[in-house]
Amino acid sequence: MARHTTTVPANPEVIIWARKNSKMRSADVAARTTLSGLDEDRLQQIEAGDAEATISEVLEFARLFKRP
Questions:
Q1: Long-range contacts made by residues 48-56, C-beta under 8 angstroms, separation at least 24?
Q2: Which of 33, 42, 25, 41 lies closest to 60, judged by CA?
Q3: Exposed (0-12), middle (13-18) or buried (19+): which is 46, by Cβ within 10 Å?
């Protein structure tokens, strides 16, 4: 399986906390991301726990939110 499609169990509460702590809205993440598939709807699905994040998305969150 390719790295960008492998899902990982990411805690939605931690993603929400990191985004809010970075003072970003969902729209800000969608505007600043370098991943083509990570839009506002996708972020909301991940934060709601309806979808698992991929490794690439988790790494993108770390980059955007400046968190390990």
A1: 48/12, 49/12, 52/7, 52/8, 52/9, 52/10, 53/7, 53/8, 53/10, 53/15, 54/4, 54/5, 54/6, 54/7, 54/8, 55/3, 55/4, 55/6, 55/7, 55/8, 56/3, 56/4
A2: 33
A3: buried
- Reported pTM: 0.86
Beta bridge partners of 53: 8
Cα 51–49–40 angle (5° rounding)? 65
d(CA 32, CA 34): 7
Write the single-letter amino acid at 48: A
pLDDT digits (tens, 9 = 90+) for 13-33: 999 999 999 999 999 999 999
